[in-house]
Amino acid sequence: MDKNSKESKALMIDYDAKQLAKDTALHLEPIIYEIVDSIEQKAKNKLLKPLTLAEAADFLCISRPSMSKLISQGEINFTSMNPDNPKSKKMFDREDLIAWRNSKKTKTISEIRKAARDGRKE
Fold first, then answer.
1. Does the first or last residue of the chain, that is N or C, have fewer Cβ atoms within 10 Å of its Cβ?
2. Nearest to residue 98, comparing CAs of 45, 41, 54, 47?
3. Which residues pair with 51 in a beta bridge?
4. Backbone phi, then psi, for 46, in 5-degree steps?
5. 79 - beta bridge partners?
6. pLDDT digits (tens, 9 = 90+) for 61-92
């Protein structure tokens, strides 16, 4: 065993649990922030990625034929990969899908009753 190994072991033995935890946390903090930032960036990128027709239908919890019907009725916004071809691949933004879903949301009985109690007409 060399002298440095003995000194390192001696230092570790002299640490109490609180000091060891504090020093460990101090060294881990930047690493943890880097990992969290990476996870947040991946999540953000995933939310920005356009959805295919199948993914959009799954996102809205409706069938593909129902999704196609809504598209043909002009109810849901999309971006065509080839605007000259009506049968070309279509892509959908999550924000547009969420806005459409929210516009079609049916109020629950408790929401209607609460609005009536508050004197609002909804």
1. N
2. 47
3. 92
4. -65, -40
5. 91
6. 999 999 999 999 999 999 988 888 888 899 99
In angstroms, the CA 113 to CA 9 distance is: 70
Q: What is the pTM of this model?
A: 0.53
Structure tokens at 98: 């969420």
Residue 66 C-alpha from the chain's centroid: 25
CA distance 89 to 91: 7
User: 3-class DSSP state for residue 33?
Assistant: helix
Q: What angle do CA 89, 92, 98 make, to 5 degrees?
A: 155
Do residues 56 and 98 touch, judged by C-beta distance below 8 A? Answer: no
Helix (H, G, I), strand (E, B) or coil at 75: coil
Around Cβ 82, how many Cβ atoms within 10 Å? 10
